[in-house]
Amino acid sequence: MTTFERHSVTPWLLLAPQLAVVAIFFFWPAAESLRQAFYVQDAFGLGERFVGLANFQHVLSSPGYWHAFGVTALFSLLVAAGAMGLALLLAVLADRVLHGARLYRVLLTWPYAVAPAVAGLLWLFMFDPVLGVLTHALAVFGVHWDAQLDPGQALALVVIASIWQQMSYNFVFFLAGLQMIPASLLEAAAIDGAGPFRCFFGITLPLLSPTAFFLLVMNSVYVLFETFATIDNTTLGGPGGATRTLVYKLYEDGFVGRDLGGSSAQSVLLMLLVGVLTFIQFRYLERRVAY
């Protein structure tokens, strides 16, 4: 083997373990889900029958699916806007801290090290109707909190837990983006008489637009997929389906109801939804990004 051939093969050998993991745990399940979406299987997986698009027709004609779609849209909007807005505010404040800045930044990034399931349990305990610290604090203001009975409070609980868990991820990128902005630009604007708000909206925010666009895409994926554990450990999709998102309905139908064909069809639709959202973000929102 020549030196050129050896160097051309080496990168593929180094990539082989990672490519194998991606193929086994991502592409193979995705292909199998796409195949199962066109079949009806018994609960034990011992037999299957080809039904074409019947699973998709059943899913799209189900009121429960569209209710979960509406819950997902509202949940996604609240979590993405809350996590990005709060992270930007904290990043701006942390960037201005002169003493103990490193300590503040470490404390603000800690929540991201917490798994979504654990984050859900932490907020569930704090909002417990009997023992919750925050529940007793709300009672002082005459607010009776019981997320197991009130649909609005249940949705608020999972939104708060998801924002708290994702906020740290956004904070790291926003802080890095703020530190990359040349101080000379802000100093020149201040000399010209621009106030803090005008500097922020006229200089800082436009220069952060690439970071904000990247985080918008990542937060959309996070809300649609990674919040499952938070919901499962707090509300179980209830009460009355108030927190049953598309990914949680997929789990209920597939692993609890054993409707493998219907859940596979839902997974395909969810992948298409993510693809459409990503296309719209890159096709229309990226135009407003100032690189």
What's the arrangement of secondary structure elements?
Layout: H1 3-36, E1 39-41, E2 48-50, H2 54-60, H3 63-96, H4 101-109, H5 116-126, H6 133-140, H7 151-179, H8 183-191, H9 196-207, H10 209-226, H11 228-232, H12 246-256, H13 260-283
Antiparallel strand pairs: 1-2
Helix pairs in contact: 1-13, 2-13, 3-4, 3-7, 3-10, 5-7, 7-10, 8-9, 10-13, 12-13
Commentary on this structure:
With 291 residues, this protein is mostly helical. 73% of the residues lie in helices and 2% in strands. It has helices at 3-36, 54-60, 63-96, 101-109, 116-126, 133-140, 151-179, 183-191, 196-207, 209-226, 228-232, 246-256, 260-283; strands at 39-41, 48-50. Strands 1-2 form a two-stranded antiparallel sheet. Strand 1 and strand 2 form a beta hairpin. The mean pLDDT is 86.
Provide a quick synopsis of the model.
By secondary structure, the chain is mainly α.
In DSSP terms, counting alpha (H) and pi (I) runs of 4 or more, how many helices?
13
Radius of gyration: 23 Å
Helix content: over 70%
| End-to-end CA span | 45 Å
Rounded mean pLDDT is: 86
Lateral strand order in the biggest sheet: 1-2
Shape by Cα distribution: globular
* Series of secondary-structure elements, N-terminal to C-terminal: HEEHHHHHHHHHHHH
Strand content: under 5%
Q: Low-confidence parts, pLDDT < 50 over ≥5 residues?
A: none
Characterize the largest beta sheet: strand count, sense, and whether it forms a barrel: 2 strands, antiparallel
The SS-based structural class is: mainly alpha
Number of E strands: 2
